[in-house]
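Practice problem: predict the structure.
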Amino acid sequence: MFKYKNININYIRYGNKDKPTVVLLHGWGQNIQMMKPVGDNLTDYDVIIIDLPGHGNSEEPKEVWLLTDFVDMIHALLTSLNIDDPILIGHSFGGKISLLYASKYQTKKLILFGSPFKVKKNPNSLKVKILKKLKSLPGLKNIAETMKKHMGSEDYRNASPMMRDILVKHVNTDITEDVKKIKCSAIIIWGTNDAAVPIADAYELETLISDSAVIPYEDCSHYAYLERLNQTVSIIKNFIKEN
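Answer:
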């Protein structure tokens, strides 16, 4: 366990500490186990997998965290372990954190799976209009909040009140300008049938990161990296070996 801002952060470390460190970050609502199939195939390297705060066996933040708080927590953990040039592997929410980390701190290489980086443009959807109207009417604010729980995403419905607030911050944070600052090389693995983050975003990321390449997985979903695990591991190993 690692303590940061008075909360306990769970992580595991295994593999070869004499080799470069690979840090794996899972998606929202998940935990270490979602990244372990990848980590277990990279034990020639120093492998660290983190339960992000509010997930797995890590405690929830005591206050609403911004994405930068997650990034700074990871940097503090790695600094405590004397690691200053990690290889980051992130899926979805973990990928967004990886992008922001690489824009702010020294990073050796970046591997992304279905990683959002901008705000979805649907503020005028029907359900949002309905909720706004209900909130504006006397005595109906509580009903609006109840509806919000049922109408929101599955991630939102399953989250605690604190984590819901953090999730809202996450989905409404655009890091496009930060991504432009990334200097390390990156590979972007994405399912062509990703319904959570469209493949078009992968190609936009490729234009934002100067040394990057998209590797599309045909007919795969938001969990493409697991659907073709052997291919994913092979690509990562070859990428890490490159100078």
